[in-house]
User: Fold this.
Amino acid sequence: MKPNAPHKDKDRARVAAIFRIVLAAMSFCTSARAQEARVVDIPTRPGVTQRFVYVAPDKPKASAVLFAGGQGELQITNDGSFGRKGNFLVRSRNLFAERGIAVAVIDAPSDRQNLAGFRQTREHVEDVRAVIAWLRVQAGVPVWLVGTSRGTLSVGYIATQLPANSGGADGIVLTSTVLAQSRNMREATVPEMALERIAVPVLVVHHKQDGCRVCPFADLPRLMSKLATVPRKEMIAVEGGENEGDPCEAFAYHGYNGIEREVVAKIAAWIAPQ
Assistant:
């Protein structure tokens, strides 16, 4: 019997390892199970409310305010549907919840039809401050701001105006960042902002083949150099997916078409490491 003892020990160790893997998988599935999405309206400024759709796992590891691109008008209805739903972050909201991130997909406030010319204003900062405060109470975990395309104009600006110790977020994520000006743009690009004021971690995600004229991949070094003073930063370049339609729209490389799950996984792993 003794000669077989080492084999039995190996078998026991193998079974124990498999058991641990199964338990870990079960734990992940339980924590990542998303609750039903709900529409939330909170008061921000006098006479103004901010609407967002909230989706969360049972036990979130972090929470995030998601800022869509374009004019930012998502037209969220009372039943939680979106009039405009193609945007990368909007269509990926459940992927964040699957990864343990509670999300608030933010619309334009009640006193505006959209966010055109509003993203870099004191009023927008106050509206988002209220959402951050709500998330801190609701989820009790660190809060991040995540923007894509023109949503980065909101995220970058708010981070320069609202420190974490004054109601701001614990970190920001910039995806498909606006790096260059266009004729109809009313706001500063992200590299033109006072990024030296940011004192929280910053993750930058960009598609190498992004064809949007205001988001050229070649301009990223300028952005990263402006982020020299942040406590933690990284730039993640991605490839692949599908490229359909206008190069600045949601289903081009600009919107991570076909690689949404991969991109969300990278973001979630960075803001809430296992």
